[in-house]
Amino acid sequence: MQEFIKLGISEELTGVLMQNGIAKPTPIQAQAIPAVMEGKDVIAQAQTGTGKTLAFILPILEKAESDAGHIQALIVTPTRELALQITDEVLKLTKDSDLEVLAVYGGQDVDKQLKRLKKNIQIVVGTPGRLLDHIKRKTIDLSEVNFLVLDEADQMLHIGFLDEVERIIKETPDKRQTMLFSATMPAEIRKLANKHMKEPQYIQIEKTQGPAHSVKQIAIHTVDRAKQGTLIQLIQTHRPFLAVIFCRTKRRVTKLYEVLKANGFDCDQLHGDISQSKREQVMKRFRDAEIQLLIATDVAARGLDVEGVTHVFNYDIPLDPESYVHRIGRTGRAGMKGLAITFYSSADKPLLEEIENGLKIKIPKQNIGNSNDDQQPDAAPKNKRHDPKRQTSAGKRNDRRKGRQSQSRDDKFSPKKGKRGESSSSRTGRTKTQGKKKHSPNASRNSSKNRGR
């Protein structure tokens, strides 16, 4: 408790932190909070899951005035999920104060936002698109903003929001205090900082952005056709409490979701084509452990911070080291242990080597069954490919004897051909009735009651 007080945080706010189980500042908080409290512009670089959110929220809450009749703090985020997550953090810390916070994002009822904006709002957390919409409508006034935070700045660049961010910054006064938080610091972000920040203090927690040490990593050699069967086998073996499964495209997310659903798993999907109300429902169910598996694209899961995520599966290998760090950062948060499993094919080996070289790590490799590409069913005569009906029972027995059961064709696990005769508990790592009761991650991994096979 005394450590936050030494950083300049009041006893009252420190007490609220204690009530939420936060007693000691993380390294990024320990370095950033004093600088922000002194009124300095700050550029903070630290990997995901290190506590960046509290590093800017706490000083803002200390300095904000509840009786001010204007927006004092604007926090810009790349995604709706992150905007809601930050808003929830602010609400936890301000439940006994008069400070008002509002999340402003696309997909939400505009009229509802307009009604709230007419009231006395001190802190706005929003996405660039919806913020610009309100600026055009003249329903939001940023002319008296004291604090501007650009969170996950590298992802705003990745998504293509930098022009929108520039336009938003121009609506704020020059005298504001600016804070930029990012996991990486590409040249475009540095240029943005140099243009809009005044002698910023640069804070970097880790020179090499890499995975958390608490996350065990494995790379499994396979082929695309074998991924579904391999994934199902791994889920049944490892029995994760909560797991995030990353696919490269929205189409692949939906396809995998349908397969896993048909096989009795408690799962749901998250990608850009899902409506905002549906996204919020999915995230609530995942946080409440009502679903065990969340299948998502990179952008949809950006900033996703859910307590109890024990496993991350890279169903499709990420395209660069930064995306790899972001993905597996969904587990092993706040010092908890996690497991990250990445599928890769022979064609993916250069990508895997790029990730390893970029992060200066060596990921242990494993094979599931017989995963050499030249020994896969793809080597069969063309007229027999992808046609399980033409495979004889003797051939199936031979496959099993050769250890190739885990690489059954996608059709075997398709919704139309799922094993409907089996009970849900025999196919999935957790039954639906069990999934609605939240357990601790460690207990869940060790208890057969929580994860029946």
Gyration radius, rounded: 24 Å
* Low-confidence runs of at least 5 consecutive residues: 370-453
Widest beta sheet: strand line-up = 3-4-2-5-6-1-7
Shape: globular
CATH architecture of the largest domain: 3-Layer(aba) Sandwich
Number of separate structural domains: 2
Full CATH superfamily name of the largest domain: P-loop containing nucleotide triphosphate hydrolases
Give the biggest sheet: 7 strands, parallel
Query: Into which percentage range does the β-strand content fall?
Result: 5-15%
Structural class: alpha/beta
Explain how this protein is built:
The protein has 453 residues and is an alpha/beta fold. The protein has two domains: 2-204, P-loop containing nucleotide triphosphate hydrolases (Rossmann fold, 3-Layer(aba) Sandwich); 215-446, Rossmann fold (3-Layer(aba) Sandwich), CATH 3.40.50. Helix content is 38%, strand content 15%. It contains 19 helices and 14 strands. The protein has helices spanning 2-6, 11-19, 27-37, 52-63, 80-93, 110-117, 128-137, 153-159, 162-170, 187-196, 227-238, 250-262, 276-287, 321-328, 349-359, 393-401, 424-427, 432-435, 441-446, and strands at 42-45, 73-76, 101-104, 123-126, 147-150, 177-182, 201-204, 215-221, 242-246, 267-270, 293-296, 309-314, 338-344, 365-367. Strands 3-4-2-5-6-1-7 form a seven-stranded parallel sheet, with helices on both faces. A seven-stranded parallel sheet has the order 10-11-9-12-13-8-14. The longest helix is centred in the first third of the chain and has 14 residues, at 80-93. It is globular and about 60 Å long.
